[in-house]
Write a sequence for this structure.
């Protein structure tokens, strides 16, 4: 296919994606929407997905303006620069810097050795911070691409944020640690917290907000002292956003709900309830009146922050519930948090994770046609009800280090047994 043909095909794809939006929802991704960012002028939204694609959308029309294809794996993090350029980061360990309208990145930043899962732009726009599952945080110069690694996390680094004055970085990880890196030297101060941490944000007044796998938000002062905590939901928080003024927090759970929290009072104002799929990404528009969420069903939705109601007609679409046939099955209810990434049948289109069809009796990382991490390929685990139960008893990061699977645990032995009984029935068909 020649350059002109490729350009026409790309234009046709953008037109098709745009036509499907119609102000109800932004539908164009072929997998869970892992990351969202709003442009400085408030006109554009950037989304990244497990489908390895990023899309720039018009917030005035909900139409897709361009599709950014570069990464070889999931696009886990996205950001805008002050000049309107875009940044995407992937599970392929690469970070790409884009100018709107160009088909290839202007610059590719390569130094991480594991998936890059979070980005932050410095207040002055000159630097970029990235958090990776290679256990490091990196600080990049956007002028020349030079970087330095901040080492200290013992497990996956999941979130990173700049302090308002740009003089420190804060990172969080699965190792139950929040680290404050004082710049320019980068000397760390470590704060131990009681749960694995999935995301972090910093308010304009410097207060740090960390999101835990236990469903709790923990607030800390600029020097890392405890300043309060609260339960935002019953399931792990996988995404976090602050309104521009820092007054509101949006905490998205893998269970499919988003808590809107008044930061100063530590109070849940309302809970947004979607179609039941996990919510992987959240961002406030600049007016703080609208929240945008990215779902496991590949849809991007707008919400009225004050009412808690979705904006637009038919916002939940007509996607069939993949577990509808198992209504009332307790094991299926436990499995619902997994359906975002895994199918039960090899006949279904592949999602972000490998199909579970024929799971029991299969060696880990042996399914043909799926790209497993090198770490998993060296493990001597055969999937049985016992090994799956152990995976969720201790957590994927402890049981299968190097996995791309989000950290989650099932504390109840009864729930673990219900899950493995369900998998034995559902994956053997």
């Amino acid at each position: 296919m020649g350059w002109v043909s490729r350009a026409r095909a790309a234009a046709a794809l953008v037109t098709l994606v745009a036509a499907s939006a119609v102000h109800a929802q932004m539908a164009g991704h072929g997998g869970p929407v892992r990351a969202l960012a709003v442009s400085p002028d408030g006109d554009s939204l950037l989304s990244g997905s497990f489908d390895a694609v990023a899309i720039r959308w018009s917030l005035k029309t909900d139409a897709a303006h361009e599709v950014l294809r570069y990464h070889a794996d999931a696009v886990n993090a996205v950001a805008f620069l002050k000049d309107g350029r875009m940044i995407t980061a992937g599970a392929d360990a690469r970070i790409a810097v884009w100018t709107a309208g160009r088909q290839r990145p202007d610059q590719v930043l390569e130094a991480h050795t594991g998936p890059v899962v979070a980005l932050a732009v410095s207040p002055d726009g000159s630097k970029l911070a990235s958090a990776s599952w290679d256990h490091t945080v990196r600080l990049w110069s956007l002028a020349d691409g030079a970087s330095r690694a901040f080492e200290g996390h013992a497990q996956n680094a999941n979130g990173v944020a700049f302090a308002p004055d740009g003089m420190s970085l804060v990172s969080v990880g699965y190792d139950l640690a929040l680290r404050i890196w004082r710049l320019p030297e980068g000397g760390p101060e470590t704060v131990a917290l009681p749960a694995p941490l999935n995301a972090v944000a910093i308010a304009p007044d410097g207060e740090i907000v960390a999101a835990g796998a236990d469903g709790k938000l923990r607030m800390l002062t600029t020097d890392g002292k405890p300043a309060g905590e609260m339960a935002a939901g019953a399931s792990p928080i996988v995404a976090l956003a602050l309104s521009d003024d820092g007054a509101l927090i949006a905490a998205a759970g893998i269970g499919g709900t988003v808590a809107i929290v008044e930061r100063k009072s530590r109070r849940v104002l309302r809970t947004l309830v979607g179609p039941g799929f996990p919510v992987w990404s959240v961002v406030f528009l600049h007016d703080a009146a609208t929240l945008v969420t990215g779902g496991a069903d590949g849809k991007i939705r707008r919400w009225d922050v004050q009412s808690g109601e979705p904006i637009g007609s038919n916002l939940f679409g007509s996607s069939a519930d993949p577990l509808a046939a198992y209504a009332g099955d307790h094991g299926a209810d436990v499995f619902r948090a997994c359906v975002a990434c895994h199918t039960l049948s090899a006949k279904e289109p592949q999602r972000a994770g490998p199909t579970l069809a024929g799971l029991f009796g299969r060696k880990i990382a042996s399914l043909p046609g799926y790209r497993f991490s090198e770490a998993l390929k060296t493990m001597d685990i055969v999937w049985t009800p016992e090994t799956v139960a152990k995976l969720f008893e201790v957590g994927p990061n402890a049981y299968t280090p190097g996995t791309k699977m989000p950290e989650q645990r099932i504390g109840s032995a009864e729930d673990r047994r219900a899950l493995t009984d369900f998998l034995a029935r559902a994956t053997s068909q």
About this structure: The chain has six helices and 28 strands.
